[in-house]
Amino acid sequence: MRDLVRSSRDLQNFFRSGIDRFFADAFFRNWPFSAQEMFPPVDLYQTDNSLVALIDLPGVETKDVEVTATVDSLTISGEFKPVSEDGEVLWQERSAGKFYRSFKLPVHIKSDKVEANYKNGVLRIVMPKVDELKSSSIRIKES
After folding, report:
1. Which among 130, 135, 133, 76 has a CA at the least distance from the CA of 107?
2. Bridge partners (DSSP) listed for residue 104
3. What is the pLDDT of residues 75-112, one digit of tens each?
């Protein structure tokens, strides 16, 4: 029976991803300013009437999050609080510390109508769009 051998391209990708993981683990783990800590992942969607932002904030309490909206920007800030357990730490990947995200929005929103809900570790922010200015035909009256 013949052994299966990966193609050279598969081997290159395999070794490259392994090397990437090694350096990420060796040099970036447990730094006080890791990417996850400073920038929680955000998805931004657009519907006909609103913009919707989804922000992953697992384990964060709503009292530790602040959302600010203006007519053309959205800012989310807060803090991941450390969770400690009794015993010796054998492996630690979860970060603790403050986070901050700020976005210039692609369209204007009604900042006084923004709604935020938090469920299952995901913050959902719905931002109604400003009604677009519609042109209309003006009838000229004779005097």
Report:
1. 130
2. 73
3. 999 998 887 788 888 887 777 889 999 989 999 999 99
